Amino acid sequence: MTIHSVTLDDPDYPSLLINDHQAPAKLYYRGSLTALEGPRVAIIGTRRCTHYGRQVATQLGLELAEAGVAVVSGLALGIDGAAHTGALSVGGAPVIGVVGSGLDVVYPLRHRGLWHDVATQGLLVSEAPLGAAPEPWRFPARNRIIAALADAVVVVESHMAGGSNHTVAAAIDRSVPVLAVPGPITSSASAGSNRLLVEGCAPVTEVDDVLMAIGLEARGPRRRRDRRPPPGPAESAVLAAIGWSPSSLESISLRTGTPPAAVAVALTRLEADGWARAVDGWWERRAPPP
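-> structure tokens emitted (290 positions)
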């Protein structure tokens, strides 16, 4: 796909950026600049996300795209990639990716296909010249563009000192609303996003919270049929003990007062039916499929 470029004095330069006090002098892009014409929400977060964070980001991306809202993100591993994957899955609003390298230097490499899909179904943009490597200093600079293009910024998961802080600061500097997804108080991946809630950012518990934040009508409750077999009494107790943060078999046994062998049997059934999964020796609860 052809790579185009625009400068500040070009009539096609995005109007969203032209009056920004840190407007890039030149932008490179693949795809269509018309992707910027509708409502836009940035979904950001840590690369080292949990299964919970990945599911939330995917679901928010999907439902925002269905509602006609373009999802803006940085195409990084973790939350960024999950949000774009969700948005692309429904063929709704266009997607917008802002990257920290030249558009001919895919980073991370495992997102090569995602880069292509974003450019094909929306807009891929960078201020880095062609051939520019993904040097660390480029990402904080990239994040100001994400904030400037967004009507609101949603932080799904962020460690206390995560890179999302750069985007949040850039959004606040531009009076762009910042929202955050609540996470387990025991999860370091949610420490930064939970802190934002304490500091007064609006919480996101469903897509309607985001839609109302940007002045769109809420969609109302959406009831999807959960096709998973309902867990039995023993499995339900184990599922409740897992909660929404990774748990070991031993901790589940202590919380339920059930012998480890019986817990292992229940976990095997829950995993087979799609209610839980094992990750690196820990057990995580699975949200309903979209």
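The CA atoms of residues 25 and 134 lie 19 Å apart.
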